[in-house]
Amino acid sequence: MSGLEALQAVQFISVKDRHYAVIEAEEWEGLIEWLEALEDTAVFEQAMADLAASGGSPQRAGWLRWEDVRSPLALDLRSK
Prior knowledge:
Blueprint: H1 3-8, E1 11-15, E2 18-22, H2 25-53, H3 66-78
């Protein structure tokens, strides 16, 4: 289900002069995944724009070298 479909599936109720939006948990999770994908896309597009602006140089774009971050990341993943 797309985020738009999840939003269209919202039902509204009124209780004591208050209005609430109700959505099924599965649809809510789909909406969260959709929003995360949008955020990931924005991060990727910004990274590509930075790379292009740097003339294609990852170093000038401010990217970190994999070799410099691999070990701490691997240690962090093993602890989970």
